[in-house]
Every structure is written in structure tokens, then in C-alpha cells.
Design a protein that fits this description.
62 residues; mainly alpha
């Protein structure tokens, strides 16, 4: 159960970081600044990602 939650958390984190960095680069930011800011923002939202992954594990059982 813990590994599935960690896997889902990693998937949410990676998707969030890459998506927000892509949006920043498209709107004109440098790649380095966009990745740094996206990683920092992702770390701020990490508890939320863990909570979402926990809820998914709890309520989406097969």
C-alpha cells in the first residue's frame, strides 16, 4: 500500500512539475528558472499530492 501511494505521489509530482515548467517556458521564461520554480512549487504542494494519492488508494480499490 505504501509503495502504491509513493508511486502515485511521484506521478502527481512529476506531472505537476513538468506541466508548470512547460507553461512557463511557453510564456517566455528561461528553462532553468522555470524548472527551479516548478520544483520548488512542487515541494510546497507535496503534502497535498500525498493526500490525494492516499485518497485514491483508499477509495479506488479494485
Amino acid at each position: 500500500m505504501i509503495l502504491r501511494i509513493l508511486g502515485r505521489t511521484l506521478a502527481l509530482y512529476t506531472t505537476g512539475v513538468l506541466g508548470s515548467a512547460t507553461l512557463m517556458v511557453v510564456t517566455g521564461a528561461s528553462l532553468e528558472r522555470a524548472l527551479a520554480l516548478s520544483i520548488f512549487m512542487g515541494l510546497l504542494f507535496l503534502p497535498l499530492f500525498v493526500f490525494i494519492a492516499y485518497l485514491a488508494e483508499k477509495y479506488l480499490k479494485k
